[in-house]
Amino acid sequence: MNILLTGGTGYIGSHTAVALAEAGHHVVLFDNFCNSQPDVAQRLHTLTGQALPLVEGDVRNTALLTHTLQAHQISAVIHFAGLKAVGESVAQPLDYYANNVQGSISLLQAMQAAQVNTLVFSSSATVYGEPHYLPLDETHPTAATNPYGRSKLHIEEILRDACAADPALRVLCLRYFNPVGAHASGLIGDNPRGVPNNLMPYLSRVAAGELPHVNVFGADYPTIDGTGVRDYIHVADLASGHLAALAHLAQRPGFDVINLGTGQGYSVLQMIDAFAAASGRPVPHRIVPRRAGDIAACYARPDKAARLLGWQATRTLQDMCRDTWHWQIRGAGHEQLEQLGSVPNLPPGNPQHSPHIP
Ligand code: NAD
Ligand code: WQD
Q1: Does residue 103 line the site of ligand 1, with CB under 6 A?
Q2: Where in the chain is CATH 3.40.50.720?
Q3: Does domain 199-230+263-299+315-340 have CATH number 3.40.50.1370?
Q4: Catalytic residues
Q5: pTM
Q6: Residue 40 in contact with ligand 1 by CB distance below 6 A
Q7: Rounded to an integer, what distance in angstroms lies between the CA atom of residue 34 and that of residue 67?
Q8: Domain spanning 2-180+233-260: which CATH class is it, in words?
Q9: What spacing in Å lies between the alpha carbon of 341 and ligand 1's midpoint?
Q10: Quick one: which of 9, 1, 2, 6 has its CA closest to 189?
Q11: Which residue's CA is the nearest one to ligand 2's atom 11?
Q12: Distance between CA atoms of 92 and 253, rounded to whole angstroms?
């Protein structure tokens, strides 16, 4: 199948590109590089042995998207492109609605024009807001608490309406829990700019000596050790979930939402211990006050994914920490950590980089 990945050079998109290419699909990447680097395409070439076509563009450019869908005879789209920083969304809500909501409408319009009917959308567990009960199943009420989360909810609603209006449309919203880890090769992974907001990349930089210690945001939550509990899921498991989602959509038109999580929660202190063990390096921490907007615990009931997609996460917390560390020393922290040795030796790739299709 010919599949377009918007946001395809980003963290989750790039791992999904590898999984799709390995499964024999033809992958086309579409990205404006607002939060990724074009050299990801070279790394994907190295990993897949294929020069994946890469179109540089903004998803709000409906004409470019329509042309791309037609030119590459696309039959399904996975829509990763979006802004995702919660704090930034509070400061710049219009940017988030313009990029995420308007971008999704533009994509739907392009799909309609090009007669592409199958869409997998990157949603988030953040749409559940403060949990009323745990584990979170898909019938849990939705209530986003910030503009980023609200943009995801708005998009889900728009997609539901679009499906109601067009019986040919097939849309699956995947609500990811906390994606972490990296490709086992260490060639691709999460590469946040500046000081990371998320726990796992922060742990990784502390272990590497780039940051002095982890601030643990609150140790007075009603959890196993007082620190926040989350459902961390390996990005490679998430990637295979997208393959299962596409196979499911081939059988089932209409609209649905499905959690992608492991069903297992880990606390911040458990994560620190696991990361120190995986990296063999100290990960010092300090308890500081709670972070505004944080919840005590959040983890998935992953049964619907198992039932409908035949998918479940298989990788362990140790796998997540090991692969994050491997990426830290081989990929993300390449320049900073040359003294540790073992940096990647990338052969030159030859991605088809088409910056301006009219
Ligand atoms: P990412 O920032 O690494 O990837 C997103 C990609 O989209 C980037 O390459 C960026 O350059 C591109 N992009 C953004 N706006 C664009 C636009 N207007 N036009 C074209 N390209 C654009 O993020 P990620 O972690 O890979 O997340 C992918 C998707 O999954 C996002 O929609 C995000 O909201 C969602 N999600 C992520 C997480 C997480 O913790 N990583 C959790 C739940 C949901
Ligand atoms: C995890 C735990 C923190 C950093 C966010 C978004 C969510 C989703 C994933 C996209 C919490 C604690 C963290 C640190 C800490 N993204 N922590 N010290 O907040 O669950 O989810 O990313 O959809 O929308 O909100 O992830 O990794 O930031 O935090 O103690 O330096 O680690 O308090 O308990 P979160 P996180």
Answers
A1: yes
A2: 2-180+233-260
A3: no
A4: 148
A5: 0.94
A6: no
A7: 21
A8: alpha beta
A9: 31
A10: 9
A11: 228
A12: 36
